[in-house]
Q: What sequence folds into this?
């Protein structure tokens, strides 16, 4: 063997050794996170901290590591001010403000750092089921069961536009990535695209076939703004061309209502959460189902997986359920990484520049220990996109 061949052979062996070492580190990290979960259940906080310290140098720490770090240094803030149940919640892009929508017919804007109420948005005459900040943080959209959506100045709270056209409850409302359009989903089985500047209804997306009064539950734009996804009580999700309203794909596979939908940040994948107790990850171009995960299935009245979100790096999937359980999944393998007990029925994630890639901050809406559940017949339409199924008039936040 020549000297050059020996050198190449040595380099190959070194690469194999490095790859083997990285795989071993990954396996050890996963094992330690499982041990951390077990230690937490046993109320062994010191052991959790020890495991975190042992894995602190691992370069691919994810959502679960930061979650356990925050659990051992917990700083939960409660935001109180609504007089009825909080139904929807969203962060501003910089994470400095939070907007909430409530059964009390109002939306409120809060200081995310100290929990102080900054604005109360009054104008709807029924439940506020959907809220979202525009990408630049200057506007807020709210969707209501009064069949209208409204656009507000996020600094002053002034109502700028009322979007009229739906003939049933609006369950979801989101801005396009460039902030120039809004898409709303309604139980009238349609989604509508609106111009933010004029309030004009540009397009109506028709194709879902749920029974009247149980139509579209969630909507989302793709990160590039070229596609829209809708989730429906007809057990399907559909992808639409945002510019002309053409139906591009129908995602068929769920056996019950699709509560929530979300694109990955790169737009290549899509996740749907359903009342059939599963979340499915799809190829957003071909519509092929990539894998399915099964969430919490306890309780005969379960609504299944009520909210879904990808981590910013796309490596993890978080699903939230009505049973105050969130599950963290590895997107590459479909394996469950973590079960977060006692957390929100729905989750909103935002990336923090102060944390490592893939870490997030979550808004948590939780049931008070002294609270009781209202009767199922009193439930309004489900928000779906940003939040699952909250019913109590406060929220809590914690870094995870």
A:
């Amino acid at each position: 063997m020549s000297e050059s061949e020996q050198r190449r052979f040595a380099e190959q062996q070194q690469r194999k050794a490095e790859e083997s070492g990285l795989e071993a580190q990954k396996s050890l990290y996963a094992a330690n996170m499982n041990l951390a979960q077990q230690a937490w259940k046993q109320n062994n906080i010191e052991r959790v901290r020890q495991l975190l310290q042992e894995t602190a140098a691992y370069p691919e720490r994810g959502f679960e590591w930061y979650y356990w770090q925050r659990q051992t240094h917990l700083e939960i803030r409660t935001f109180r001010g609504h007089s009825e149940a909080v139904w929807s919640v969203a962060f501003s892009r910089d994470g400095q403000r939070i907007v909430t929508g409530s059964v009390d017919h109002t939306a409120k804007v809060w200081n995310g750092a100290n929990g102080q109420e900054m604005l109360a948005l009054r104008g709807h005459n029924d439940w506020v089921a959907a809220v979202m900040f525009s990408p630049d943080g200057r506007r807020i959209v709210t969707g209501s069961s009064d069949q209208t959506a409204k656009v507000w100045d996020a600094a002053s709270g002034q109502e700028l536009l009322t979007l009229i056209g739906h003939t049933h409850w609006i369950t979801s409302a989101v801005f396009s990535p460039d902030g120039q359009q809004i898409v709303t989903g309604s139980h009238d089985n349609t989604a509508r695209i609106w111009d933010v500047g004029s309030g004009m209804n540009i397009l109506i997306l028709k194709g879902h076939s749920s029974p009247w009064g149980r139509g579209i539950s969630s909507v989302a734009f793709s990160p590039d703004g070229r596609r829209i996804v809708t989730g429906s009580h007809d057990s399907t999700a559909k992808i639409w061309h945002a510019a002309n309203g053409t139906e591009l794909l129908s995602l068929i596979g769920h056996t019950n209502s699709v509560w929530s939908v979300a694109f990955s940040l790169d737009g290549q994948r899509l996740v749907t959460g359903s009342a059939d107790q599963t979340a499915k990850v799809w190829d957003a171009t071909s519509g092929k189902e990539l894998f399915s995960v099964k969430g919490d299935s306890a309780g005969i009245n379960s609504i299944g997986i009520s909210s879904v979100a990808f981590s910013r790096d796309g490596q993890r999937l978080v699903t939230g359920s009505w049973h105050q359980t969130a599950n963290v999944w590895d997107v590459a393998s479909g394996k469950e990484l973590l079960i977060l007990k006692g957390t929100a029925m729905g989750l909103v994630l935002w990336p923090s520049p102060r944390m490592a890639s893939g870490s997030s901050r979550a808004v948590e809406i939780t049931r008070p220990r002294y609270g009781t559940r209202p009767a199922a017949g009193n439930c309004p339409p489900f928000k779906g996109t940003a939040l699952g199924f909250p019913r109590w008039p406060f929220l809590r936040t914690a870094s995870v």
User: Anything to note?
Assistant: The first strand starts at residue 77 and ends at 80. The mean pLDDT is 80.
